[in-house]
Amino acid sequence: MFAVFSKRANGESVALAILVLFVAALSALPVGRLILEAVAPAGRFDLSVMAAVLSAGSTWTAAWHSLVTATVGTAISLVLGTFFALLVALTDMRGKPVLVFSFLLPLMIPPQVTALSWAQLFGPASPLLITLGLAPPLGSPNPIYSPGGIILLLGIQHAPLVFLTVRAGLRSLPREMIEAARSCGGGRLSVLSTIVLPMMTPPLVAGAALAYVSAIGNFGIPALLGIPAGYTVLPTLIYERLASFGPSIISDVAVLSILVGALAVLGFAVQSLLVGRRDYRTTGAPSQALSYPLGRARPFVEAGAWAIIVLILVVPLIALLATSLVSAYGVALSQKTVTLANYAEVLFRQDATVRAFRNSFLLAGGASALLMIVAVPFAAFVVWRPSRLLRGLAMLAEVPYALPGIVLGIAAILIFIMPLPFVGISLYNTIWIIFFAYLARFLTLSLRPVIGAVQQTDPALEEAARMTGAGYLFRLRTVLYPLLAPAAAAGAILTFMTSFNELTVSALLWSAGNETLGVVVFNLDDGGYTVLASAVAAVTVAVIVAIMGVTALFARRLPRGVLPWL
Question: In this predicted structure, what is the pLDDT of residue 284?
Fold first, then answer.
């Protein structure tokens, strides 16, 4: 009996040790290396570089721009996300699954594609506007290339984050409070304003914090819309510095990255301050909080909701598609000018785009598969073997995703710019440095659905296998992986979709021959090949929609809540 217990303990101990090293390498090492470079750039304590960067006017101009665009964009996200959450959770409007799917789609579409689609919607060269006879006079500026355009798209891009947190809060609101208020004569709007929304303060603040942090670290939208307009935020300032000076300026951009991280942490600090002032705990069974029959107003409410979807999603994508189908930017779309040559060029003839599709599939697929394997034992340890070490490990895994991607990109450069110790192999300027960054960035995406599934799973099967003397690897193979496979697959899908079109990290880490789709879209548009960039972007949107649609077909086989659009 002692031998069996010892064998079991050793197996779990080895697995736990591997997990600790894995998470430390992906989370603690990048953050530590970044801080070290900022305070000791030459291997010795020296704050002169930090002082020079923080005293530069361009630093604080970019920081102010980041703060303004993120804050105002968050306000738009808060209004838009809360409105749709209230409609979906509290009313009897029809077609809710399709509406939720459509509203969440901007979150899944890469930000650089969002920016490109909106850029094709305005301006005198827009093929869609030219076709409709609505194009402004030649020489007119494109209004989307402006701080207002950046703010608008940041608000639209991150509104689903607010929607998800508020909808979850509304689903858990106890029925008793609502029934008591209504029995005292409270009307619908009165109950909503005095009971529902005040109790939704934690989800509202949490959603706003997520939207703010995402906006602070967003690179694709400020890069495509801000760089042409001369409007610089911190992520684009870091990119421009590296593009101009290369690794020689790595200490400077490390300081800028820490500043970006500080602005992101500010959002979570404000969240803690606002929520920590009051106690929002409730008692009672969570259920449908309210069910407002819309009555005769229902067709108008539904029409208004779908009109918003058409404006923020459908029309920009139509503009993107129109641009991808013409031979040159500025040509009207007609029976004579429509062509699929752009798609043939990017899918079959251009080496860079063909490589980008291959690299993105391999990187996203490889990261999803490896993280899916790691997430199952990790989640089982966290839920079924709770301890301070494991709670700390789970929190540490969140760090690379919570920090802006530009920070992680700089940290990866700092780690791998020199050859690895003992082996003498350098990962800098290789595809493997991108793979490392993807693993670090998206570990938590793979982990969260599996943790949720483990919390809903009875550990009796695993405990029974332990009692019979089954080793840890045997239990993993025969009990845990089969039991948690649907949730692990859902996490892998989220990871694949997010990493497939990623730009913020790979924009700093790519090299010749190691392009990703996000980088190709950005470079093509930056180089003036707008119709080709639109074709690549249209294909990536089609892939994302196809994946979301296929998972929706198998919704019954997945645990409830593991995929946000189901």
Answer: 54
In terms of domains, do 32 and 52 share one? no
Co-location of 125 and 17 in the same domain? no
Range of the domain at 246: 45-284+297-326
Provide the pLDDT for residue 453. Answer: 83
- Cα–Cα distance, 337 to 369 (Å, whole number): 43
Please give the pLDDT value at position 282.
57
Q: Is residue 228 part of a domain?
A: yes
**pLDDT lower than 70: segments of the chain:** 1-10, 174-183, 185-188, 275-291, 555-562, 566
> Dihedral of CA 26/30/33/39: which sign?
negative
**Same domain as 29, residue 49:** no
* Tokens coding 416: 């791998």
Between the alpha carbon of residue 149 and those of residues 213, 297, 502, the distances in Å are 19, 33, 21
Classify 187 in phi/psi space as left (phi over 0), alpha (psi -120 to 50) or beta: beta
Residue 331 per-residue DSSP state: P
Location of structure tokens 């939207």:
211
Axis crossing angle, helix 29-39 with helix 405-416, rounded to the nearest 10: 80
Q: How far from each other are the two terminal CA atoms of the chain, in whole angstroms?
A: 47
Question: Which residue in the block uniquely carries the two structure tokens 């606002």?
Answer: 274
Q: Which of 326, 347, 376 is the last residue of a domain?
A: 326
pTM of the model: 0.89
Residue 253 has a pLDDT of: 92
Sign of CA dihedral 541, 543, 546, 548: negative
Cα(424)–Cα(131) distance, integer angstroms: 58
Same domain, 85 and 164: yes
472: part of which helix (H) or strand (E)? helix 472-475
Q: Tell me which amino acid residue 194 is.
A: T
Q: Is residue 292 one of the residues assigned to a domain?
A: no
Do 404 and 499 belong together in one domain?
yes
Q: Which residues of 111-127 are buried (b: 16+ CB within 10 A; e: fewer)?
A: bbbbbbbbbbbbbebbb
**For position 6, what pLDDT does the model report?**
44
Quote the tokens at residue 72: 């105002």
